[in-house]
Amino acid sequence: MSPSSIRTKRWTRREYERLIELGAFRPGDRLELVGGQLVVREPQSTPHATGIRLVTQALRAAFGPGWNVEAQLPVALDEESEPEPDLAVVAGGPRDYLASHPSRPVLVVEVAFTSLEFDREDKGSLYARAHVPDYWIVNLVDRVLEVRRDPVPAAEAPFGWRYRTVQSLGLEAFISPLAAPHARVAVADLLP
After folding, report:
1. Rounded CA gap, 117 and 126, in Å?
2. Closest of 6, 142, 20 to residue 76, by C-alpha
3. Do 159 and 129 touch, CB atoms closer than 8 A?
């Protein structure tokens, strides 16, 4: 059987959430729904976990009250995607999301080492398709912050969208989140 003749099942977000409710996955399973596919998430190395903690701390200070800075929690992007980014910033408080997961993050951050290409290409296209205005990758390989903004349609991208603006910022740089333009975040504060 050739790879092109293998059929796969695409999952909807509703089906995925139902599987979770039914206990189809073990508590330690690290899965997320990306474009209808169940994807195994990157293992938590010490630098990866430290990066998540550093970014969480910096973004909570940058955004302040009225914003949720959520680490590795589901974001309901569309009918076939419920990723669990390393961090997502959403307006409001925790009780605002009792009925459903947040769907409109103003900033998504992935801390990447082994998943760098997937985070750039697949997740970048997915977040652009969902019109996430600000997508950051804390690149542990090159020790830089990659900032992606301005989502635009792109037929060649995995999910038909990409970010028009891509910047790579070194340790000496500062960045202001689009949703918190008054804040200045030091890139050095985000990298372990």
Report:
1. 13
2. 20
3. yes
Closest-CA residue to 134 (of 168, 170, 109): 109
* CB of 16 closer than 8 Å to CB of 9: no
Q: What is the 3-state secondary structure (H, E, C) of 18-46?
A: HHHHCCCCCCCCCEEEECCEEEECCCCCH
**Cα–Cα distance for residue pair 144/111, rounded to 1 Å:** 11
- Regarding predicted confidence, which is higher, 79 or 120? 120
Q: Find the length of the chain.
A: 192
Rounded CA-CA distance 32/17 in Å is 10
- Whether pLDDT at 4 is above 70: no
Query: Are residues 42 and 168 in contact, defined by beta-carbon separation less than 8 angstroms?
Result: no
Q: What is the pLDDT of residue 10?
A: 80
Whether 150 and 163 have beta carbons less than 8 Å apart is answered as: yes
Cβ contact 163:157 at 8 Å: no
Report DSSP letters for 90-148, one per residue.
EES-GGGGSSS-----SEEEEEESTTHHHIIIIIHHHHHHTT-SEEEEEETTTTEEEEE
